[in-house]
Specification:
The chain is of the alpha+beta class and 772 residues long. It is built from 22 helices and 26 strands. Helices cover 32% and strands 16% of the residues. Strands 7-11-10-5-6-12 form a 6-stranded mixed sheet. It is globular, with a radius of gyration of 36 Å. It starts with a strand and ends with a strand.
């Protein structure tokens, strides 16, 4: 709508208060008086748009919009689009606000003012002769001082005797501006007049690299923080830096007294030639981390390179110990990751070239990185525009612990042949264990005991998906060839077959025995070991062997009297099992009893159904235990699947966890699933996510408190409403789980401490060792 004073667009359905303000300015520009209520109402109903007008008709019912005044219409729309928020909740958000990393003071104050808008601070002191603005300013001042997240600024503000909000705002603003100006001066070089005294000057000192900044020395001792003589110690920009060697605050590694004392002071200064091509330093800054990138042209040796598995793909990277962050180019990002790619998060960090120009950052992604030793970590990777080399920076190097003997080196030797000749001899000795034998093992046949008055149950075959028919036929042919099943023409018992897809794209056929024999069979109650009990036996292990059975249950013969109960009905007719089948309720107990009796008494050996784990405090003890296990398996006639076995590895995946000498870690695959899990949109998806997280609850301190908002959505009386509190709990649970966590092995020689605690959301206890 257009009049003398401009044009008003239709209301978009967002931010009604701003639209109402614009309506007031529109009326004022067109000289529409306050008492012209009919004209104001007509203009409002004309400009809001079809959707909003239709909504108004519903809100005003049973009256028509034309029967209400302009003010009444505005109240209706305001209460619908912007219901008055809860002042207590708004104040909680206000008092919980902290300045984010990289956020300027101006932006933080603007955020505080927006949070304070609905806090009703003017109504908090009834009867006190204080203006609403004064109360607001006091709260803004207090939150600014407490939430600015910079000790230097806080000390300055707390030292002021008469501190109002305006003053509290101007002081950090000036400090922030001064810090930025100082950084700019340092990046653009020193005053040319400082170099005049050096013209024609003859010196006996070593040659300074070209482009190195010449600064007049200050009389007195060198700065103990960085070793230079160009400034006072109190003005050193590394006074808040953390030494990478001794981890103390106030100096850098190249001038670390502890490092010099231990005789390991390998300085990075060069006496001749050009400086290194890349160097990333982190100067102190009150506004967050800032990374200054210097690039200097000049001859240098070939880069040191290595390849890492990043999100399951090999990524060649240039090792750059001068780089604070690990960086790849956008072109490498697009080439290495096909859609859907990991999400790129925004960042407040900045990169600067040698001339002080900023380098644009496309974003940071969390990726799963596998080091040379197989350990997996979720680490941040910075993506920048262009097509430069991928840099392996210090933030990854400090976590991955690379084997430097393999960097830039091709190793063609076999670890089994050279590092463990005894292991190679042992595997050759028990070569029969890896042959694909179709014979049953040398133990008594398994029996399924059924109630005497049980009524046979027969179910017809289920239709199969077309894509799985060939795979099911192939598996039936294999089972027939291996003498695992045999065809029958008649049976009183028959269960429909259920094909289960395996990781190698083949299928496992299981009878749906819960419809037939499982209802009347007597359950074999032999105990399946608890995972915690198995892990408690790993305390002294330094390397691990994991053995996996080939078609585990199928190696145990089923007694002829029990075969009729496990008949399956397939599209190719009836078949009965001659070996122990999958899906029978007693099968796990039967198989666990067999394995426990077979491997009983062998030290450092754990058995969970068909997964066998062998370890030892050293290679000798490990090989002794492995020899006993292999001998008993071969004597009994068991066969192993060599492609799924691991021998004397430093770490293994076992029962959903990653195990090494340090302790027990969450599985890397599970962490990837948690990292990539989207926010739940309903109760079913939430239950699935909570189940995934609760499986690793032992690794997350205070999990019940973190997850309390999410568990609240599962209550029967709760309606599904995903808000900011739920999103924060979801993000915190992810962050807590994917951060490096380890639970040490149980050691009977170490003292044990029981720690108990409770919160409004749960109770818990921790059983811990007292570590030396």
């Amino acid at each position: 709508m257009s009049l003398l004073g401009g044009t008003l667009p239709e209301f978009s359905g967002k931010d009604w208060s701003s639209y109402e303000d614009r309506l007031g300015f529109y009326f004022e520009a067109n000289d529409i008086a306050l008492d012209a209520v009919s004209k104001r109402r007509a203009i409002l109903l004309s400009v809001v748009g079809t959707e909003t007008y239709t909504l108004l008709r519903s809100l005003a019912a049973p009256k028509a919009p034309a029967d209400l005044t302009y003010k009444e219409l505005c109240v209706l729309l305001s209460s619908h689009f912007e219901p008055k928020p809860n002042a207590i909740l708004q104040r909680y958000s206000f008092y919980s606000a902290y300045r984010k990393q990289g956020q300027s003071v101006k932006d933080f104050v603007a955020e505080l003012k927006e949070l304070a808008r609905n806090c009703d601070f003017g109504k908090t002191r009834e009867g006190v002769n204080l203006s609403e603005q004064l109360i607001l300013d006091e709260n803004l001042r207090d939150r600014l001082v407490c939430g600015v997240a910079d000790p230097a600024i806080q000390r300055r503000l707390l030292g002021e005797t008469d501190l109002g909000f305006e003053k509290a705002f101007q002081i950090p603003l000036a400090m922030e501006s001064a810090a930025a100006n100082t950084t700019q001066l340092r990046s653009t070089g020193s005053d040319p007049t400082l170099h005049r005294a050096d013209v024609h000057k003859v010196t006996t000192h070593r040659q300074t690299p070209r482009r190195a900044k010449q600064v007049t020395p200050i009389q007195g001792r060198a700065c103990f923080r960085c070793g230079k003589t160009t400034h006072l110690q109190s003005e050193c920009r590394f006074k808040n830096a953390e030494c990478r060697f001794c981890k103390k605050i106030g100096h850098i590694e190249s001038n670390c007294f502890t490092k010099k004392k231990t005789g390991r002071n390998h300085t990075n200064q060069m006496t001749t030639g050009a400086p290194s091509e890349r160097q990333i330093v982190t100067p102190p800054s009150s506004s967050g981390a800032m990374y200054t990138l210097y690039t200097v042209k000049g001859p240098r040796p070939d880069p040191i390179t290595t390849s890492l598995k990043v999100d399951g793909k090999l990524l060649p990277m240039e090792v750059d110990t001068g780089a604070t962050l690990s960086i790849i180019s956008e072109e490498t990002w697009r080439r290495q990751w096909s859609p859907p790619r990991p999400r790129l998060e925004g960042t407040q960090d900045t990169l600067r070239t040698y001339t002080g120009q900023c380098v644009k950052i496309s974003g940071i992604a969390d990726v799963t990185v596998e080091g040379n030793n197989g350990e997996r970590h979720i680490l941040p990777l910075m993506v920048v525009p262009g097509n430069g080399p991928s840099l392996l920076g210090r933030n990854w190097l400090s976590v991955l612990r690379l084997d430097w003997s393999t960097i830039h080196h091709v190793d063609t030797s076999s670890a089994t042949d050279e590092q463990h000749p005894q292991l190679q001899a042992l595997l050759q000795k028990y070569e029969a264990a890896f042959k694909d034998s179709h014979q049953t093992v040398k133990i008594d046949a398994a029996k399924i005991y059924v109630e005497e008055d049980a009524t046979p149950k027969y179910f017809k075959a289920r239709p199969l998906p077309y894509v799985m028919r060939d795979m099911v036929d192939t598996e039936l042919d294999r089972l027939l060839a291996d003498d695992v099943i045999e065809p029958v023409q008649y049976s009183d018992w028959a269960a429909p077959v259920v094909p289960v897809m395996k990781a190698d794209k083949t299928v496992r056929l299981c009878g749906d025995y819960k419809l037939t024999v499982n209802q009347v069979a007597k359950l074999d109650r032999y105990p399946i070991p608890k995972i915690e009990d198995l892990y408690a036996q790993l305390g002294n292990g330094t390397s691990y062997t994991r053995l996996d059975m080939r078609h585990a249950y199928e190696q145990i013969e089923l007694h002829p009297d029990s075969r009729k109960y496990v008949t399956i009905n397939t599209p190719r007719g009836l078949f009965t099992y001659k070996r122990l089948p999958y899906g029978v309720s007693s099968a796990p107990g039967i198989y666990q009893r067999v394995m426990d009796s077979l491997l009983k008494g062998i030290k450092n050996t754990m058995v969970y159904l068909d997964d066998i784990l062998v370890t030892g405090k050293d290679d000798e003890e490990h090989l002794q235990a492995l020899d006993q296990v292999m001998r008993r398996l071969v004597d009994a006639g068991f066969c192993l699947k060599k492609t799924k076995c691991l021998f004397m590895n430093k770490e293994v995946e076992y029962l959903g966890h990653r195990i090494d000498a340090k302790g027990i870690h969450p599985s890397g695959n599970a962490l990837e699933a948690v990292r990539d899990a989207p926010a739940p949109t309903n109760v079913t998806e939430l239950r699935s996510y909570l189940g995934m997280v609760n499986h690793y609850s032992r690794f997350v301190p205070n999990l019940s408190t973190i997850m309390a908002p999410l568990h609240g959505l599962l209550k029967r009386e709760s309606k599904w409403h995903w808000d900011k509190a739920h999103q924060e709990a979801f993000a915190r649970s992810k962050e807590s789980l994917i951060s490096p966590q380890v639970m040490c092995h149980f050691d009977s020689t170490k003292p044990i401490v029981l720690t108990c605690d409770a919160s409004p959301y749960g109770v818990g206890a921790v059983l811990a060792h007292v570590m030396e």
